[in-house]
Write a structure and sequence with these properties.
The protein has 263 residues and is α+β, with helices and mostly antiparallel strands. The protein contains 11 helices and 6 strands.
């Protein structure tokens, strides 16, 4: 069944898929330990495996952030994740294995995050435990293919599948780009889990952007140098995003996009 699901993902342009055994939440490979209430088998008693998929955020859209272009791509990816994880869960259900998809965000809006900046389940940690990447200073999951420019969704299933190995090579280079470029200084230089992102500051900034209809921010994932997508788009040098680098055709394009479609 795992091979069938992976083939299905390939057929539907889903480049990242990993499987984690729910026991990894009991004795995880990172600290602090996730509280029991947030474990898959607490949310769906009987769960044996978690299937996590990842869809990339295309770098040229993200580069204009904060902008309407990135906002619309973000929404599109979220919609696709909900649709794909639902279909994976239903495929497993029809095969006789009770399963359920988990919404990609798990909160009702930025106001809910300001009240409590945490969701009932972390897809980032699921992706980590499914072997898809490692955490960066920005507390985002870095993947070899796309760095942190990935959105994740998960499926809980009663089917026991062979888990994928957790990545042991730290992908983060501690370049400090995400720390230095954060507009509200929400990213800690200590890294995860010693230094956690100031989620309240991040949520407040997102709320301000949302009023202008250009949230989310995306800066910390835009400037990250990790990911083979950077070479694919010819963006290996992240200095292109710095204001002191002068005018370029790329910056003119981003300024044009940012001047449209928002309040």
């Amino acid at each position: 069944m795992k091979a069938i699901l992976r083939a299905w993902c390939d057929d539907h342009e889903i480049p990242l898929m990993g499987v984690a055994d729910v026991s990894r939440w009991k004795s995880p490979l990172f600290q602090p330990r996730i509280p029991d209430a947030y474990h898959p088998d607490s949310l769906f008693p009987g769960a044996r495996s978690v299937v996590t998929i990842g869809l990339p955020v295309h770098l040229p859209s993200l580069e204009s952030s904060p902008s309407i272009q990135y906002r619309e791509m973000y929404r599109t990816i979220n919609t696709l994740l909900d649709q794909y994880t639902y279909r994976i869960a239903e495929r497993l259900n029809q095969a006789g294995y009770p399963s359920v998809s988990i919404p990609r965000d798990g909160y009702g809006g930025i106001e809910a995050l300001l009240k409590r900046p945490i969701a009932f389940f972390s897809h980032r940690h699921a992706a980590y435990l499914a072997g898809l990447g490692t955490f960066g200073l920005n507390n985002m999951l870095l993947t070899p293919e796309y760095g942190p420019r990935v959105r994740f969704g998960s499926v809980f299933t009663t089917l026991e599948m062979e888990p994928d190995p957790v990545q042991t090579v730290d992908l983060c280079t501690r370049c400090m780009e995400c720390v230095d470029r954060c507009p509200v200084r929400a990213v800690s230089s200590l890294g995860y889990p010693e230094g956690k992102t100031d989620t309240i500051a991040c949520a407040k900034y997102s709320a301000a952007l949302n009023k202008r209809q250009i949230s989310p921010c995306g800066l910390c994932i835009k400037v990250c140098p990790i990911g083979s997508d950077r070479a694919f788009y010819g963006r290996e040098d992240v200095r292109v995003y710095r204001e002191d680098e002068g005018e370029t055709p790329l910056k003119k394009a981003w300024e044009h996009i940012r001047s449209h479609g928002s309040l």
